[in-house]
Every structure is written in C-alpha cells, then in structure tokens.
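Reviewers of the previous submission asked for a worked example of the structure-prediction workflow described in the proposal, so we include one complete record here. The input consisted solely of the amino acid sequence. No template or homolog information was supplied to the procedure at any stage.
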Amino acid sequence: MSSTKTAIEWTDATWNPVTGCSKVSEGCRNCYAATLAPRLAAMGQKGYTTLPWTKRNAARNVQLHAERLDAPLRWAKPRRVFVNSMSDLFHELVPFEFVDRVFAVMALASRHTFQVLTKRPERMAEYTSTPDRAQRIGAYLTLDVNLDGPMLRGLDGAVMGRWRREGVPLPLPNVWLGTSVEDSRVLGRVDHLRETPAAIRFLSCEPLIGPLDRLDLEGIHWVIVGGESGPGHRHIEVDWVRDIREQTADAGAAFFFKQWGGATPKAGGRELDGRTWDEMPEIHAVHA
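From that input alone, the workflow returned the following structure tokens.
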C-alpha cells in the first residue's frame, strides 16, 4: 500500500512513505488505519505489524519506506494525493531528515497536489520554522537517488539545479497542510496549524465526536467534516455539523461534508440539508 487509488471523497490517491502510528487522542480510539494494519500484516503486507498502535509499540509500528518515495514521480496524470493515510508524517519517531526527503519529492512532483494531515501540528509548526529547511530539502534533489528515466520525464533540470544551490522556494504551492480536530478538547491544534506556512491550511473534523462551537478559522481555508464509522462508532449530531458549516461560511472558507458514518462509511450517506457539500479551497496565494 505504498500508493493506491482511494475511496476517500476529498482526495484521489494515497501515498504511504511512512506506515504505523500511535494513538494520541479520543479521535484515534477507533482509527481505521490501526484496525487495518494487523490485517495487512497477516496478509504479509510489508510495513505493518499485528501490534496495537500504542506508544509502547510505536518503535516497531512506525516504519520509514525510502523505497516508496519515488512513487508520485511515476504518476503522469495530476492528482490530489493524501500523504500517509496509514500513518502521520509528523509522528515523533519520523526524523525531520526523512520529512525533508518527502518534501523534496513533493517539490519535484509539482503536477500533483499533496494533502498532509497530522494530529501533531505542533511538530509540523516546528518543522516548517526550521531556518535551513529549504536548503536541506534542496540537497535531496539529486539525480543519483533512484531517479531513472520514467521519474525524470517532465522534470526541469535547470530548476532542480537552482533549487539545490539556493534551496527550494517555500511554502510549496502544491502542498496543503492540515490537522485533525475531533472535539473541543483538541482545539489548540488549530493554533499550531495557523503558525504553519502553507498554500492551503485545512481541518479534518473527522470523526466529529463533539461540538466545535468556538472554532477560530482565521487563516484556515478548508474544513472537512465527517462522522465515525465501523464497530463502536460514536454518534454525530446534525447541529454540530450545521454549526461548523455556518462558521466555515462566515470565515470565507470551503466546506466539505464527507459522511454521517455508521456501521460502514457509506451507511448514513453524505447529504446535509438536502444536498452534498463538496467545496474545495481556491489557491490565490501561498500563505506564510
């Protein structure tokens, strides 16, 4: 599962240069990835274990896959790419050096839009504020690291050379950065996201397990909302969703309602007040 098409409504494909994670808040309780990982391990899928996603097991569960880094460079058709649907790029066990390599690939694969979602936005803010980050990313734009013909097709060698010398221009216009906000107990994550330079900053309020009636959306461009699904799913109230939709509209941000949830992701459908809400953010400028 290094890269694959996906049924997630707000993206086109997933890319997993990191696999495995550990649970950090109530939104993680019924995590689909934590449930899926042991099944994949039992099937012999590389990158997964049968261990629960606890902090104690994180050193064995969180795995880096350098061999998967080149995947987006091989996709000719532009697409939206959810980065690490089976992990968290900013997990504390993922070194910034590896994050640099992921960003180098995203810089080169400029035809794609990359959507990075984390429950650790404080670490994302720390990473994006590192003074020499542009130079560190640029150092990985070399032609001797698995860059064969199919990967190089369409890449501008002169641009790559300038970026290696001067650093990659940041923030990258094709990289959206977001954080998960499942209830009011983790609203502080939004403040960390606001500190993070990005072309688009977005929130995933999924699984929404409580009201967010004091959601400060200054500097936020897109809000995704969805209910929980699967065994033991927790109930979502329609008023919670309507309130977030109204706050999003007042802030001039885009609103995307993914699902009501239930026993299966599709059980409750996607309609809210008689229609589906599939708004996507518009990029007018890169936001520092």
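Residues 238-251 form the longest helix (14 residues). We consider this example representative of the routine output the project will generate in years two and three.
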